[in-house]
Amino acid sequence: MYQVIISRKLQGRGIFVTEDRNEPNMAPTPSPEGKIEERPVILGRKLAAKERRTLLKTRNQLKQHFGEIECHITPTAKEEKKIKGLCMQCPVCFTHGCLRSGEGNYAHPAIVLYDDAFSLGNSDIETLTLNAVNTKTYRTGTALGTETFVYGGTFINVVTILHDKPEILNLILDSIVSTHSYGARSRHYGRMLNEVLAILKGPRPSVTSYSLIGEGKSIEQIVDAIEKIAKNTGQEIIPMPQLKTPEEIFLAAHQIPEVQEWYEEVREYLKV
Prior knowledge:
The chain is α+β, with helices and mostly antiparallel strands.
């Protein structure tokens, strides 16, 4: 098992909301003084979805290694009686989970678990008024509404990998350091720089984002806390590996025996 501790630094504005509301997601967050403060939070499922799509982009560029079949997240309409879309025969499905129903039934839970990312307390909340511009007169019209942003700040996040092969670790690390935009309207907002602070290896989890955020107000204090926790729990802190290209990393994960054996299991269940 690996636990990857990440510093996610927001570069400018970000929109981190749930679909049915226009307000930033906030969460009661512990402070080093033992108090609970309302701070911005980035939901773990949002981080996982974005980093999964980063892997899928590499996966589909390598479709010649997967029978020329692409892998996509395809929403299922209410009236449909089957769920399909994911190929269920690639490292992304193996790590992030997959489901197929209607033409053979099979479900594989994710082995990569994302905590919510909690703010160190150095983010601002900003509300802007939005206007439309007339492309003929170049004048702004009536205000269209307001948008609330999270502005800047550092978020501490833990990703737990329920596997001990370095090829799987490298795959997830690559998705983390290769993804730079999160949240709603990420073409314009949500630029993020991700830095891996530490990688813990051991038989069981020892840290969470929630527990670490209360250990300090700076990255240095968080790193000190990680080192103490690792020492007290017997976890090994391993160095950040020198990552190869995304394509090389992906194919290395594709070829390990555990993943190949899982492909055979899926084919048996789906009668492929």
